[in-house]
Write a sequence for this structure.
């Protein structure tokens, strides 16, 4: 079946460094992806999305890259701050119905 | 504006009891979703409501789980005869038709 997974369960970075969180997907028909941030005790919060007709999209301090050839996407966070500490999920929203989530990567920002 | 709200925020129950979890979606959102998140894991889809269409129940893990939604408003997720493996965070999300889902804070369920 379809799976969306993450390469690393935990990523530890120094404050001010750039962070890169990776995600792989298996469904070659997938065409819409979302990154969510989940802080402890809270629900997932939308960060940024990307459609398959793009390979890069930028937001405020965040960039999502999509490589359809290898079915891989990444979330880059520039100048990581302590407030960025959270679990990050990639999700496949291709069917515009139920999201398919990866298991998440915990980002720890060291001061 | 107001986001998705869920109640209770925490629920502790005994094995075998029934529980009801409530979700209030964002006003105007026709779609409503329930997900389950076990500790340290990603989200598992449970059920999806879209307007007055028949709900997509394909994610419900057993017949002990059911959900209802009245029109485009409140939804309740019911778990009958709870088991310890039902312990998880139950998250609700809502969206406009085929648009981004916005999540509530979740209900943390602990079955003793």
């Amino acid at each position: 079946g379809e799976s969306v997974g993450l390469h690393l369960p935990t990523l530890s970075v120094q404050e001010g460094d750039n962070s890169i969180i990776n995600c792989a997907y298996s469904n070659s028909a997938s065409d819409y992806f979302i990154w969510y941030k989940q802080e402890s005790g809270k629900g997932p919060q939308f960060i940024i999305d990307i459609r398959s007709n793009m390979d890069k999209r930028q937001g405020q301090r965040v960039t999502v890259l999509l490589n359809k050839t290898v079915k891989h996407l990444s979330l880059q966070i520039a100048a990581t701050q302590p407030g960025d500490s959270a679990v990050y999920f990639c999700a496949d929203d291709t069917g515009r119905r139920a999201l398919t989530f990866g298991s998440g990567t915990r980002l720890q920002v060291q001061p | 504006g107001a986001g998705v709200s869920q109640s209770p925020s925490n629920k502790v129950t005994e094995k075998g009891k029934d529980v009801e979890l409530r979700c209030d979606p964002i006003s105007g959102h026709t779609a409503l979703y329930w997900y389950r998140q076990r500790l340290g894991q990603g989200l598992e889809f449970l059920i999806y409501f879209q307007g007055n269409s028949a709900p997509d129940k394909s994610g419900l893990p057993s017949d002990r789980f059911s959900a209802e939604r009245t029109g485009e408003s409140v939804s309740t997720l019911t778990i009958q005869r709870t088991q310890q493996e039902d312990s998880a965070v139950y998250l609700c999300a809502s969206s406009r038709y085929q648009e981004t889902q916005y999540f509530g804070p979740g209900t943390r369920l602990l079955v003793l």
Remarks:
- Chain A has no helices and eleven strands.
